[in-house]
Please model this.
Amino acid sequence: PVFDTGHDDDGEKFGGKTLEKGLVTGNVVGAVVVARWYGGVMLGPVRFDHIKNCASEAIAAWRAATSGRPAKQLKVHKDVEKREELIAILTERDQSITILRGLLAEKKGQRASSSQTAGGSPAKASNYMALPLAALEKLENVRDATIGWILKEIEKAENAQTVQKDAETVSPASEKPSLFPTTPVPNRDAGS
Model:
């Protein structure tokens, strides 16, 4: 079957897209509506967390009502699955960050002294099991940003190496043939 998906932000930029993504991710056929009103405090980007959480709770309640499982049991089960998935992702990203930091240090070491490091702290094992789900989700975003930053720094270092190599392959000006050869002019005052 072909389904039509869409959303209406109704002035809440990206709010509808957040809800649509939740429906698609949850493989839900139907609609969800989240209404919010200004209560006198500017929430900033955290409002999208509230919108997403409200929609997730509504979807979980709908699933519980249609599947016969209690909503809380369903939520706990989904949280456990999400937690395990995030821990695996974070562990993999930590390994990627360690490798990328080493590569960055190597790239920078080729044009700088070998005593310079990638600016990172020594790798230490993280105990993700002790963190709540919300903290794991934020850490995933932080790890993504860190990987993005390191990749940009690697690209900068590679560009600097290319510029340096190009400068080294160009011969110095004294070795280039000149259009106007210079010949020493004898000093006429020395003989008189």
